[in-house]
Every structure is written in C-alpha cells, then in structure tokens.
Amino acid sequence: MTTEAAPTTAFHSGFVSVVGRPNVGKSTLVNRLVGEKVAIVSDKPQTTRNRILAVLNRPDGQIVLFDTPGIHKPMHRMNERMVETAVGSLGQVDLALWLVDVTEEYGPGDRYVKDVLGRAGKPVLLGLNKIDLVPKPRLLPLIDQYRQLLDFAEIVPISALKGDNVERLAERLVAHLPEGERLYPEDFLTDQPERFFVAEMIREQILRHTREEIPYSTAVLIDRFKEGTPVVRIEASILVERQSQKGILIGRGGGMLKSIGTAARREIEAFLGTKIYLGLFVKVREGWREDPGMLDEMGLGKAGRPSSD
Predict the structure, then answer these.
(1) pTM for this structure?
(2) DSSP one-letter string for 22-47
(3) Nearest-10 Cα torsion for 306, 272, 236, 231
(4) Exposed / middle / buried, residue 211 (Cβ in 10 Å: 0-12, 13-18, 19+)
C-alpha cells in the first residue's frame, strides 16, 4: 500500500515597487510590512527621496520591496531625480503596488501615475490606503471607480497606519510573484548602509521640527562616522539654500538645532544600540537642489536592480 505525499506549497519570490503620489503612506506601509523602520515618515509630502530596498520574509515567499519617492510634478533637479527613481524602479520589478489615499479625490496626479503604470506594462496590484479614515459605505464605490482605470491583478483596501488588512495584502503580493527561491538571505533587511539611516533620522527630526519651505530646502550629509568605545562619534552637515534658512534652523540661542539634535541622537542611539556623540553643523549651499554633484553625493539618482549575490 502506498500513500501519496502531501502537496507542498510553492515558494514565491520577486521584486515589488511601491509607487504613488507623495504622502499616500508608502513608507508607512513598507515599515509595517517588514516590521522594522527602514524609511522615515512625516506628514509632509516628498519625505522619501531615495529608493529604499526592504525585504519581507514569509513562510510562503520573499517580497523584495522598493519604497520609492512620490511621483509628482518636479520643481527642481532634485525632484526630477526623485521622480526618475520612482518611475525607473518599475522596469526592475515583477509587480507594481500602486498605493492611493482614499481620503483624497482622484485627480491629475493619480492620472499621471496611472499612465506611468500603463506604459510600464507590469502587473499592478492596487492598495486603497487610509480606509480607517472613511466610512465603510464609501469603499465599494471607490473600488468600482478605480476598477475602471486599469486591469488590476487585485484591489486590496488597507490601513497602513493601523495595520488593517495589511496581512491580506502581503498574501496577495506573494501570490502574484513568480515561483522561485529566496533572492536574499533570510536575515537580510535592507541594502542601505548605517550612514544612510543616520542621515535620514536627522532629516526626519528636521521635518518634524520645522515648517514652510525649510524641510524641502534641507539635506543631511554625514561628514564623520567614527566607531569607538564607549561612544560613536558622528558629525553631520545640514545644508540649506539661504542664510535666512540657516538662522531659522539654528533658532534663537541655538534652541532649534539643539532640539533637532537631541531627538535625532535618541533615535540613532536606539538604532545603533550604543551611545553616540552627535555634532550638527548648518551650512549654506545656494542651489544645492540643482547641483548634480551634490545630488550624486546624496545618492539621489536612478538606482539599478540590486544584486542579491
């Protein structure tokens, strides 16, 4: 008498680009999916500037996520590179996840994203985000409205902030990826170095503490990252475009810069698991958002499909 072996569930793996307009919750979703903070978040549009790779490992598959800058009308060369990074990521993936904010009316920005996705020719899964902020009766008409736009692989309503239906989204992402082995080791989380995250944590505090044009006119460069015991010494330059912005960022008696530094130091110490010395220096660099060399130094540009070797 012979017994049949139980069927094994196929393992799926592949690349997924998370795209959408600015401020729809892409970074919040990526952080929620992987269970770690790999991307800074704020309530200000255009928070994400670089393509961030993050790996989600599941029993049924491995999803390699690209968190991308919001697709918007660029006003500076920096923004042009951000949009190029987001659009270019679609040529490197197996599946696109288009995230939209259900609290916002469908408009020109969404139409542009739809056209970009249509030209990319990749399967698209639509995530309707922020469902916790709208009455449930509104969801079915919204789903019907978006269903007319593209031939979506699936449509999944979620709340990235609350976690509602995010597990279901992960299941459906895996299901639409090709069968295959892991692309990265199981303990691999992201391809970005520690220096990148340190700079982003400083920039996150600038976003939280400042307003008007300051968040969009600043950049953070790590000048020194010296490991040692018992303290890691980190020095960073905060770039602004005008002298008046420097004054605002430093604040009366240095108060603003001190607040930013204190909050950033706490975040970085938790991230590195050690005490740090953090020195922040505000420098004026007129027109840095139009400077190709400066943008290259910050890693703002097209990113090729990473190697998993």
Answers:
(1) 0.91
(2) TTSSHHHHHHHHHTS--S---SSTT-
(3) -140
(4) exposed
